[in-house]
Amino acid sequence: MLDVKHAAFQINNKHILKDVSFNLPTGQILGVLGANGAGKTTLLKMIAGQRASKDMIYWHGRPIESLSHNEKAKQIAVVNQFNHNVFSLDLEQIISMGLLPHQRLFSRVSAQQKHTIADALAKVGLLAQRKQAFHTLSGGEQQRGLLARALVQRAHLIVLDEPINHLDVFYQHQILHLLKQLATARGLCVVMSLHDVNLAANYCDTLCLLNEGQMLAQGAPQDVLTETLLQSAFKTPCKVFPASQQHALRVEFLPHSAPHIDAQFGQDNLI
Ligand SMILES: Nc1ncnc2c1ncn2[C@@H]1O[C@H](COP(=O)(O)OP(=O)(O)OP(=O)(O)O)[C@@H](O)[C@H]1O
Fold it and tell me: Which residues form the ABC transporter domain (predicted)?
């Protein structure tokens, strides 16, 4: 169980995150939504133990900062948004890094572990690319590769920052479906930020909607994805179509003109 209690973060006296609280039972996926700069990445980094979070984030009752490096590596897998990789390693080598928390120093990869790596590669559709240098993979392939590394890590908490950013529509569904299956079958907690509210409605059990660092709403998709809340968070008109037996709830954002942008273009004579 993940517990976030009054999470707050400041940089240079600027409140990036203010009093954000929620909990997530095992086996569930939480989607973190919000406009650019709302604080999603900051919150995810705190949950992943990559930002200071004294007594604000608890994993199975323990403050996240009290976990040792090794415990963290075994318990938490992180798939970050930007991967400034300096690796000249191939994909298989990158994925095998997920085994490190479970291995003794300098031990060889066992046959069982090789099978686990091949299985993870197959699950993200990258078996054929396994010997390709990681930095030569496309953005979407790199993202799927990092997810495969998280699978191999067998962590119980997976934190993903915009995991489907670079993915085509087939892999968007494939990866989110896989995360949902894993969350249920292995009893994982999955926390991810997303920009696509319709995918969030389809795959997340629960959502939190951030606005300027504060929790605007949290709960089941139908309670969070309302026209009023979405318009307030994204400053864009929208229409919400309720869920039916066949389909999850669907949001359609409507074209609009943003007065501040119009004013700027007007001033600069760009149009
Ligand atoms: N090191 C920093 N110094 C100053 N401001 C920062 C710093 N890191 C983050 N911020 C600010 O904190 C706010 C929240 O950033 P964050 O990356 O958490 O937003 P986000 O919701 O993930 O945005 P996006 O959707 O664009 O990825 C932003 O306004 C950002 O400019």
Answer: 2-237
